Structures are given as C-alpha cells and as structure tokens.
C-alpha cells in the first residue's frame, strides 16, 4: 500500500468514526443531564417527605392548641369558684366544693395528658417576658425592680410553646 492509499483510508475511517463519536458524546451528555434531573427529583422527593413528616408531627403536637386555649377560661372559672367560697360556708357547701375540686382536677389531668402544663409563678419570682405578661407595675417596699408582686392568672405551655402567659403585677422599685 502506498502512502496515498493509507492516507485516503485513514480519512475514510475518520469520517466514519466522527459521526459515531459525536453521537456517543451526545448520548453521554444526555445521560449526564438525565442523571442530574433524576438526582434533583430524588432530592426534592426526600425534602417533601421530610417536610410532610415535620408538618404531621407539629399538627399532632400543636393541633389542639385552639381547643386548649378555649378551655383555659373554664380552668380559671373553676379556680375562682373555689376561691370565692368563704371559710365559714365551707362546711355547709362541702359536697359542692368537692365536686368543683374533682372537676378541676379532672380538667387538669386531661390538659396534662395532652401536653398543657401550667406556668405558676410565685410572688418574689423574677419577671420573665417569655412566660409572663405584666398587667401593672407598682413600687412595693422591700422588693427589687422586676420581681413579681402579684399573680392574677396562671399561664400555660403546650409542650414547649406558650399557650397563654401568666398575668402578673411587677415591682417598679428602682435600684437604691
């Protein structure tokens, strides 16, 4: 074979290989593109699954917050009813008082069972704006500024979320 024949044969082979090589490169590019789309779709599906699971857990834990918030005045009224009975009438109203106490206890048990816990600050505790709502400020001798001087109503948490802040009076004494 002469040099010209070999050269012509190589040109023919290159011409035959070029479309196949181009087609092979196009298929590889398409494969890579489809793999990328597949991985993105898989990641989106996993993110959607995680988001749905988180939403389900939150709905399970906090879905009853409206009902719980609506029951808090019932709790408050039962406590007020017990506090309103004068000492001299306690014996005469023993059965009624016992019934109100049992109802209050049952309500408290049900609320606790569903994750509602009371926030019961005491006089002298430090005011915490995350858990307490200041209803008034007043200077009270013998207290420091920011101390709770009166508790108007208890607050409540639903698991770790504030359902209702405790309503308190706070000392406004200035540091001496």
From TrEMBL:
InterPro entries, per database record: GrpE (IPR000740), GrpE_CC (IPR013805), GrpE_head (IPR009012)
PROSITE patterns tied to this protein: GRPE (PS01071)
Region annotated Disordered, chain positions: 1-24
Coiled-coil stretches: 24-62
Keyword Cytoplasm tagged: yes
Stretches with biased composition (Acidic residues): 11-24
Keywords from the UniProt entry: Chaperone, Coiled coil, Cytoplasm, Stress response
Signal peptide: none
CDD domains according to UniProt: GrpE
KW Cytoplasm (keyword) present: yes
UniProt-annotated location(s): Cytoplasm
Compositionally biased intervals (Low complexity): 1-10
Oligomer and partners: Homodimer.
HAMAP family associated with the record: GrpE
Protein function: Participates actively in the response to hyperosmotic and heat shock by preventing the aggregation of stress-denatured proteins, in association with DnaK and GrpE. It is the nucleotide exchange factor for DnaK and may function as a thermosensor. Unfolded proteins bind initially to DnaJ; upon interaction with the DnaJ-bound protein, DnaK hydrolyzes its bound ATP, resulting in the formation of a stable complex. GrpE releases ADP from DnaK; ATP binding to DnaK triggers the release of the substrate protein, thus completing the reaction cycle.
Family, per entry: Belongs to the GrpE family.
Protein name as it appears in the record: Protein GrpE
Organism phylogeny: Bacteria, Pseudomonadati, Pseudomonadota, Alphaproteobacteria, Rhodobacterales
């Amino acid at each position: 074979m002469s040099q010209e024949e070999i050269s012509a044969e190589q040109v023919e082979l290159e011409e035959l290989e070029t479309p196949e090589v181009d087609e092979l490169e196009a298929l590889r590019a398409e494969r890579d593109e489809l793999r990328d789309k597949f991985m993105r779709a898989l990641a989106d599906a996993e993110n959607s699954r995680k988001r749905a699971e988180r939403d389900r857990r939150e709905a399970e834990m906090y879905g009853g917050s409206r009902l719980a918030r609506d029951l808090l005045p019932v709790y408050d009224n039962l406590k007020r009813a017990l506090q309103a009975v004068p000492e001299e009438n306690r014996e005469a109203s023993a059965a009624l008082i016992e019934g109100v106490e049992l109802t209050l206890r049952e309500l408290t048990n049900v609320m606790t069972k569903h994750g509602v816990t009371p926030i019961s600050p005491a006089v002298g505790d430090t005011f915490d704006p995350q858990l307490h709502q200041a209803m008034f400020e007043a200077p009270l001798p013998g207290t420091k500024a920011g101390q709770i001087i009166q508790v108007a109503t208890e607050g409540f948490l639903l698991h770790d979320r504030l359902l209702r802040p405790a309503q308190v009076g706070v000392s406004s004494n200035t540091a001496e």
